[in-house]
């Protein structure tokens, strides 16, 4: 990718965003406006259903099916599988966003269907347990256990051939979980190696636990603390519910930039980064580590002037259609260039 020198300038709103704000009275929604997690959950579920309905139905999917799987503490979670009409394709495991507290299978339904129907992937959509009912590290453990299940059942139940590609992907908190899973797989190999990580607007390190050497470059949390959709108030609500014990927030299962064995075993990685997002610089720093320090192949798509998760809240924007299409093309790039 072309090196971006001035990350702060990416916060400047676009003309399309300004026009959108005018059309809705000048005030964009902010998850921080909700008083609690319960009220957020209702809103996000309806928003994601509306987003999926905004796009054309995807062809080429043979079967969608829900499965109950058992995770390490004996609890059961649901995974939804998508099997393409033609068997023997790549495998993808998807983790939804929502600050580890909200969201569900509907969050990534559109992406799952696109990867299955358009790219021929067998896809596993993970409904991990949410906080505050299930605090850290429940989400990370559930996603790893579900990924182990996917790898173990890839060639049988899922009719897949992960030697053709094995992608982990997620949005926001799901991007965090995808990075956590790809790092766990670095230290504890799966039945098939992960060949690509797709990180969409990922949360990669708690802002109070940044590695010292990267702090000068991590400006977006402060710069965009009053941003639309994901403000500082919203992030505080999420982290206080998911990791109520502040001493645990530096744990690599949350703050991936602190991974104890480093990042040298990471696969080819694709990033989607929003310019007016508090999480922006975490993604840029991590991408630079992979590409510049470790020689790992990366691809980056940036959406200047747009806030965290804009496409899910405003699916009718031209930029939203581009983000969704980029997600498919980025996954396709991972499959063509992936290397564990």
CATH class: Alpha Beta
* Alpha-beta classification: alpha/beta
- What would you call the shape? globular
State the CATH architecture. Answer: 3-Layer(aba) Sandwich
**What is the total number of structural domains?**
1
What share of residues are in beta strands?
15-25%
The CATH topology name reads: Rossmann fold
The helix content is 25-40%
C-alpha-based Rg, rounded = 18 Å
Please describe the structure with a list of short key phrases separated by commas or semicolons.
340 residues; eight-stranded mixed sheet; alpha/beta; globular; 10 helices; Rossmann fold
Topology at a glance:
Blueprint: H1 15-23, H2 37-53, E1 61-70, E2 76-84, E3 91-95, H3 109-119, E4 122-127, H4 138-152, E5 166-171, H5 173-187, E6 196-200, H6 220-223, H7 232-242, E7 268-276, H8 280-293, E8 298-307, H9 310-313, H10 318-337
């Amino acid at each position: 990718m072309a090196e971006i020198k001035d990350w702060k300038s990416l916060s400047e709103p676009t003309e399309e965003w300004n026009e959108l704000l005018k059309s809705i009275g000048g005030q964009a929604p902010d998850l921080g406006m909700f008083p609690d997690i319960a009220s957020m959950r209702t809103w996000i579920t309806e928003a994601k259903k509306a987003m999926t309905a905004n796009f054309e139905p995807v062809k080429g999917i043979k079967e969608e099916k829900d499965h109950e799987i058992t995770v390490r503490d004996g609890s059961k979670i649901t995974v939804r599988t998508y099997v393409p009409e033609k068997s023997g394709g790549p495998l993808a495991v998807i983790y939804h966003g929502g600050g580890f507290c909200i969201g569900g299978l509907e969050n990534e339904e559109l992406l799952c269907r696109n990867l299955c129907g358009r790219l021929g992937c067998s896809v596993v959509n993970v409904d991990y347990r949410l906080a505050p009912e299930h605090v850290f590290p429940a989400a990370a453990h559930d996603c790893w256990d579900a990924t182990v299940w996917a790898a173990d059942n890839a060639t049988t139940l899922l009719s897949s051939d992960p030697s053709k590609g094995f992608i982990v992907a997620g949005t926001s908190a799901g991007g965090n979980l995808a990075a956590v899973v790809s790092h766990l797989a670095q230290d504890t190999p799966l039945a098939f190696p992960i060949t690509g990580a797709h990180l969409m607007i990922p949360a990669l390190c708690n802002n109070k636990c940044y590695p010292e050497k990267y702090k000068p470059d991590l400006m977006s949390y402060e710069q965009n603390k009053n941003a639309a959709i994901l403000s500082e108030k919203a992030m505080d609500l999420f982290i206080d519910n998911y990791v109520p014990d502040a001493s645990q927030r530096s744990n690599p299962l949350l703050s991936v930039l602190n991974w104890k064995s480093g990042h040298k075993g990471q696969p080819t990685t694709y990033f989607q980064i929003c310019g007016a997002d508090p999480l922006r610089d975490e993604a840029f720093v991590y991408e630079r580590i992979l590409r510049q320090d470790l020689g790992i192949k990366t691809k980056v798509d940036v959406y200047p002037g747009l806030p965290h998760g804009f496409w899910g809240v405003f699916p009718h924007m031209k930029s939203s259609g581009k983000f969704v299409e980029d997600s498919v093309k980025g996954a396709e790039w991972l499959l063509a260039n992936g290397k564990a």
